[in-house]
Amino acid sequence: MRAIVSKDFFLSQTIPIKKIERxxxxxxxxxxxxxxxxxxxxFRMPSxxxxxxxxxxxxxxxxxxxxxxxxxxxSLGVINFPE
Length: 83
Prior knowledge:
By secondary structure, the protein is an alpha+beta fold. It has a single domain, classed as DNA Polymerase III, Chain A, domain 2, CATH 3.10.150.10. Helix content is 24%, strand content 47%. The protein has 2 helices and 7 strands; from the N terminus they run βαβββββαβ. It has helices at residues 7-14, 59-70, and strands at 2-6, 22-28, 31-37, 42-46, 48-51, 53-58, 76-80. The protein has a 4-stranded antiparallel β-sheet with strand order 4-3-2-6. Strands 5-1-7 form a 3-stranded antiparallel β-sheet.
């Protein structure tokens, strides 16, 4: 799964979803969507999907992804799983 997203938009939608056990991300049809497993936290945002797919992330993987996106030097970046 690979998708180009806006750093600021991604962070504005996802920073509140830090405390989860697991989350699923899916990239299809011009959207990146996320749903936490075991709670009602969700997000959906426009993206340029390079490779459609779906991944399941642990809490640690999710926090690492948020940290990586926060450190992107540009306003756009690629979310890429598996890494």
